[in-house]
Input
Amino acid sequence: MSHRVKGVIAPGRGQPTQLTDILVPAPGPGEALVRVHACGVCHTDLHYRQGGISDDFPFLLGHEAAGEVEEVGPDVHTLEPGAFVVLNWRAVCGHCRACRKGRPQYCFSTANATQKMTLPDGAPLSPALGIGAFAELTLVAAGQCTPVPRVRPEAAGLLGCGVMAGLGSVLHTGKVAPGDSVAVFGCGGVGAAAVAGARLAGATTIVAVDVDDRKLRWATELGATHTVNSTRDDPVEAVRAATGGFGADVAVEAVGRPEVLQQAFYARDLAGTVVQVGVPTPDMALPAIPMIDFFGRGGALKPSWYGDCLPSRDFPMLIDLYRQGRLDLDHFVTETIGLGDVEAAFDRMRRGEVLRSVVTL
Ligand SMILES: NC(=O)c1ccc[n+]([C@@H]2O[C@H](COP(=O)([O-])OP(=O)(O)OC[C@H]3O[C@@H](n4cnc5c(N)ncnc54)[C@H](O)[C@@H]3O)[C@@H](O)[C@H]2O)c1
Ligand SMILES: [Zn+2]
Ligand SMILES: [Zn+2]
Output
């Protein structure tokens, strides 16, 4: 038996989202049905709507969510109905070549629900990042549910994507250590979390770069020691000035644009690390950086998917830090909205007015 509930779909490339009825199947083997309590609006949802990720329309959007397990499939023994969970898009398989090498954060075969959620006429939906949580109920693989202590769902859900990606980009991918200098390019939900992560890790110089003064103000509240509006000042020069003339140990690109990657590349110290967490579109190419600069400056260029996180390890730990007042997840929740407001939230995101709009149900 399937459930008929409301969900937000992206019907076609660049077309406005629609709040519509969807059918969510009862959980089969390995699956869990989750009642969504909160789901943040991530820029990746907008990429899906624009056709920047793939052409598998219609998408069921939303992937940054917390909720309660409603029902589990017949063979699922690791999860109880009623559990408070954050949904993740890295349910590791345990037996691919990455998992076997003890590097499950790179799992090449992560699990999603086997059954499809559909429109009432039976047309299958593609859930964003295998989640699809702008909906009252969603069907996921049981491993996509990470149980955490029960806290405000709007805050917890943020760990499901953007905030985890930002935190992990400095904690795991960039391996920021006490005393390091960090520059973060783009201070939306992801970049602002990178700033917060840099503070958690003990970075002593944290330079926030954005084109919007509001974002720079929020970044300061989350721990930035210096801010640069790159429409007014040269960000490479400004980062060097803030770091004794040298550049940052770790530079995080959290926009997803070649020219910003280039700025991050040159704003880092010799032997420093560039972490790219912003998602490019398929038409973009790496900036034309002289090969002698790539070689001569040393260090590393590292893409970071989901902040190289392991949900089972990281989500409960980050919720603990939140409960101890050491990680201000509430700061990222600019507004709470209804399921019918996602399209307007995309407009607010484009205008730079929010860190996160969070749908509450
Ligand atoms: N790697 C991952 O696992 C992962 C996870 C979630 C999101 N993302 C990606 O991270 C990126 C950021 O996501 P978000 O949700 O924070 O988006 P957002 O829209 O909230 O933030 C983007 C920020 O970049 C700023 N910006 C735009 N152009 C700029 C420029 N030229 N220089 C400096 N700043 C600029 C904007 O003002 C805004 O503050 C997106 O590409 C998103 O798809 C990646
Ligand atoms: Zn695996
Ligand atoms: Zn996301």
